[in-house]
Amino acid sequence: MRVLEVGVSRPVTVAITASKNALKVVPSRPLSKRSTEKVAHAVRHMFRIDENLARFYDAVSIEPEFEWIRHEGAGRLLRSPTMFEDLVKMICTTNCSWAATEKMTNALVRELGRDSDDGRKSFPSAPAMAERPVGFFRDKVRAGYRSPYLKELAQRITEGELDVESWLHSELPQKEFMKELKSVKGVGNYAAENLLKLIGRYDGLALDSWTRAQFAKTRNNGRAASNKKIARFYARFEPWRGLALWCDMTRHWLDPETLGQW
């Protein structure tokens, strides 16, 4: 289930399920043609339906132990309907547990989201967040040191100083793009490299404590590995090394019976 904005009218909740080689999307109410098109666009964006991963599959298939990625059709990283939502959520993942991230994002939705017709709420807009003082993010969202960052981000977008949706189509070289992403307070190397993955650039590894621990467990006999060692291991997959790492580290999330079929 996902609540989507469809313009000035009330947000709509959609149920999304897999049906053979397609996605079935059922809205919580009848929609106009224009709203239907907006929902279809959002779902295609979220599930990366139009992203061509053929070159990625060619790159990983050279290595037998990574060939499962092509067979499973893995690599389409789920993202939010907007770059703004992904950016806010990414800031909320830094230096904290996943449970804390969930609490922060749930609070933002609960306090500032717009109601869908079934009682669920949408992710808040930048203007809705910009209207609130820093104290709101500290006391209601429990965002801690991120509080002024979230306020400033929302203000910059609302005032037209920052257009994060344009990042999806940016042709900036990687180094310059990283610099632009990190101009947003609260975004460091980890957050920026993860955001680039959501945009469709996969060179960055976006290493954090979880991926380092998982690499040690699955690839280094339980011993901690340096960032350089991890980078060397996936260097053969450039410019897809970040996506190869993510697939490798999350392979155990897939159904083992399905994996065994190919």
β-strand amount: 5-15%
Mean pLDDT: 95
Structural class: mainly alpha
- Largest sheet: spatial strand order: 1-2-3
Chain oligomer state: single chain
| Main sheet record | 3 strands, antiparallel
**Could you say which overall geometry the principal axes of the C-alpha atoms support?**
globular
Based on CA atoms alone, the radius of gyration comes out at 19 Å
Which segments are poorly predicted (pLDDT under 50) over 5 or more consecutive residues?
258-262
What is the CA-CA span between the terminal residues? Answer: 30 Å
H/E series, N to C?
Answer: EEEHHHHHHHHHHHHHH
Helix residue percentage: 40-55%
Note down, in words, how this protein is organized.
The chain is mainly alpha-helical and 262 residues long. Helices cover 48% and strands 6% of the residues. It has 14 helices and three strands. It has helices at residues 33-46, 54-61, 68-72, 83-91, 98-112, 126-130, 134-139, 147-158, 174-181, 189-199, 209-219, 227-234, 241-250, 256-259, and strands at residues 2-4, 12-19, 22-27. A three-stranded antiparallel beta sheet has the order 1-2-3. A hairpin with a 7-residue loop joins strand 1 (2-4) and strand 2. Helix 4 packs antiparallel against helix 10 (189-199). The chain is globular and about 50 Å long. The two termini are 30 Å apart.
